[in-house]
Design a protein that fits this description.
- By secondary structure, this protein is mainly beta.
- It contains three helices and 57 strands.
- The strands form 15 sheets. A four-stranded antiparallel sheet has the order 2-29-28-27, with no helix packed on it.
């Protein structure tokens, strides 16, 4: 144990004398039960051993984190399957045993990593290339034997007594359709879960013997061993607690319904945690299996493929959000919400100082709302022209919006109580307007892209020339425009408009398209990554940093069939739509956004605007909804060592304890080490208010 040098103890005099609040205002932050995003990259499987969390990423990389403090996880090391073929490196399941990680790889079998030194994992056995047998394989380890699902109804068996050279043994046939299956070895039994649950005696691991089949009322998806309620069998619409001592004569101990479907589960002590298909995680008290009690349901970005729990922290892994850590216990109440009924149907929204401006699909124009008192918003002005309208953008004192008869209108909103029309620009077939820097970008009635430059003195005007391109939908990132000639087309043109008189075509490419009959609904761009929402609920991520590339990399994920709007404010991405919670992400790595949390919004959630930890939502027929996240956020303030939400000299005492015990809170300069230099860093963080 390291002891604090005496010279550091006397350094308290450099601390600021006044108490400082650790809360950081500004952009939305992690809130409610989400502790941290351990790794935002898509993953299908993870497991924990002690303080280590092993994450099998979608791209075939094994990442190892020290999650002793899930608020400050440390990436220790990583290793990747070195196959050029994606189908030979996608890891769908992983188990760790005896200093080795055994990965089930799509179409390829088993990959083995030496993880005896977590800071330097090594791939020691590569899977076969295009082996073609394994589809979404699951894997389980029992002693020196590995079981892996193999094809529609086969289980492959491997001798892993020498982990670097697994030897395939004769497999056996299952009576189940073993795609998307779970394997669980508990004691001398192997449970295969896929619709039903097959129970095998593996007292002789190389020759499993079927001893019974449990048939729940609905499709079984997962099984976990609880301490007090037997086996929890997770089915599509119910979780059953069952004693399968004799699998041919199951004893039902109780159940609780999952009307929206369940996906996976984990258990610790008297609690069971279940990931639902309704994109929530449920905490269930199973003290009395005959009458379990749901204590809490947590908003999540998706259903999760794998749950594991350690020391009160729940780790959830999935292809949408990567691996996240939750505190799955009742915490703070929901974020505070206020609302204001406004005329018409609110769909588009934009902010200008203390005012929110909205337009919608009803026969009302621009509505101005004073939000200087967020708990009591007031409708203070409007510009009605009694035509359905769409899309809204604001730059300074100017607003641009469309109606279906006259097209684009430019308004002066310097006095929100009396917006003034400056001019009309284009005909009724247009409908998309974006703001970037000092410019409005919009499409005219011929679907050409046109620009209003507001940087000069006087009334903004459209340049005399327009830029043809038959643009139906587009996104703007700085001076770069990503344009789709048709909402039914995967082609994207990329043009640099730094010089309005001579725009430069940078390239043409394609974005991922989930189906021939689907359409693009919305587009947004951030740091050369294009986000595209399509009508089947797919959000595409396309890296266009090299616009000349003909086949750019892309990443897609299912969000929700009701996804309709993509909003980007600073480095925050908001996804919204009818019937789904608003999902918030941070774009540290735009190709792998970090999920911050979900927010329920009443009514239909249209576009979202964000400022000062507050969400402003165009809520359809419900008008404006204002959601204050500030009271429920978990702020990253490293100087607040005792995590009480304020900075006081007691945090110095807490830092001394962290230093002596080599805990993660000691690391104040972010170098991954606990050294005396962290004291000076802590003093700086403290005096800076974090």
């Amino acid at each position: 144990m390291k002891k604090l040098p005496t010279r550091l103890v006397t350094a308290c005099a450099v601390l600021a004398a006044t108490q400082a609040h650790a809360q950081i205002t500004g952009e939305p932050c992690v809130f409610r039960n989400l502790i941290n995003v351990i790794n935002p990259k898509p993953a299908h499987a993870s497991c924990t051993h002690g303080v280590l969390t092993y994450i099998a990423q979608y791209d075939g990389t094994l990442a190892i984190y020290n999650t002793a403090n899930p608020e400050n996880p440390k990436l220790l090391g990583s290793a990747s399957i070195d196959s050029p073929d994606w189908f030979s490196r996608y890891i769908s399941d992983i188990k760790v045993s005896g200093g080795f990680a055994f990965a089930a790889v799509e179409n390829s079998g088993i990959a083995v990593f030496d993880v005896s030194d977590p800071s330097s994992p090594t791939l020691v056995h590569s899977p076969a290339t295009n082996f073609g047998r394994f589809n979404q394989p699951a894997i389980e380890i029992a002693g020196t034997t590995a079981y892996i699902t193999d094809g529609p109804d086969e289980i492959a068996v491997f001798d892993i007594s020498t982990p670097t050279t697994p030897v395939e043994l004769p497999g056996f046939e299952s009576g189940l359709f073993t795609y998307f299956t779970k394997l669980d070895a508990i004691g001398d039994r192997l449970y295969i879960t896929d619709e039903d649950v097959e129970v095998y005696d593996i007292s002789n691991p190389a020759t499993p013997q079927l001893i019974g089949t449990y048939e729940p009322a609905t499709y079984a998806l997962d099984i976990v061993q609880t301490q007090i309620a037997g086996l929890a069998v997770v089915s599509q619409s119910v979780v059953n607690f069952v004693d399968l001592t004799d699998p041919n004569a199951p004893v039902h101990l109780g159940n609780f319904p999952m009307p929206n479907g369940a996906r996976s589960a984990a258990t610790e002590g008297e609690l069971l945690f279940v990931s639902g298909y309704d994109e929530r995680i449920y905490t269930v008290d199973i003290t009395q299996p005959a009458s379990p009690v749901v204590l809490l349901s947590i908003d999540a970005p998706t259903e999760f493929d794998a749950l594991t729990v350690r020391a009160g922290t729940l780790f959830a892994t999935g292809l949408v959000a990567g691996t996240l850590a939750f505190e799955p216990y009742p915490l703070a109440p929901e974020p505070t919400t206020s609302s204001l009924q406004t005329p018409g149907t609110s769909v588009s929204i934009a902010l200008a100082g203390d005012h929110v401006f909205m337009t919608g699909t009803g026969q009302h124009g621009l509505q101005a709302v004073d939000t200087s008192s967020p708990n009591a918003p007031q409708l203070v002005g409007n510009y009605d022209w009694w035509r359905p309208h769409s899309d809204l953008a604001i730059i300074g004192d100017y607003a641009c919006t469309f109606d279906e008869t006259y097209g684009l209108r430019l308004l002066d909103i310097s006095n929100p109580q009396t917006p003034v029309r400056i001019s009309n620009f284009v005909g009724p077939n247009a409908g998309t307007v974006r703001a970037s820097g000092d410019r409005f970008y919009f499409t005219d009635d011929d679907l050409d892209l046109r620009i209003i430059d507001t940087s000069g003195p006087g009334t903004p005007v459209v340049p005399t020339s327009s830029y043809p391109g038959n643009v139906e939908l587009f996104a703007v990132d700085g001076n770069i425009v990503y344009a789709a000639p048709s909402v039914h087309n995967t082609e994207i043109t990329i043009t640099d408009y730094s010089n309005l008189q001579s725009p430069v075509l940078l390239g043409e490419t394609n974005v991922y398209y989930p189906g021939l009959n689907e359409t693009h609904i919305d587009m947004a761009a951030y740091n050369s990554v294009l986000f595209t929402a399509s009508s089947d609920g797919v959000l595409s991520f396309t890296d266009l940093s090299n616009p000349a590339a003909q086949e750019p990399d892309f990443y897609w994920t299912f969000i929700d069939a009701s996804l309709e709007h993509i909003s980007i404010h600073g480095d925050i991405l908001a996804l919204s739509g009818s019937g789904m919670p608003i999902q918030l992400y941070r774009l540290d790595d735009p190709m792998h956004p970090t999920w911050l949390g979900s927010v329920e919004s009443p009514g239909q959630a249209g576009e979202v605007a964000i400022a000062n930890n507050t969400l402003y939502v165009a809520s359809g027929d419900d008008g404006l909804t204002i959601i204050d996240l500030g009271g429920d956020c978990e702020f990253d303030c490293v100087a607040d060592v005792n995590h009480d939400g304020v900075l006081t000299p007691t945090d110095f005492t807490a830092w001394i304890g962290a230093y002596n015990d080599n805990r993660p809170e000691c690391d104040q300069n972010g170098d991954g080490l606990c050294t005396p230099t962290d004291f000076s860093a802590w003093v700086g963080n403290y005096n800076a208010g974090c």
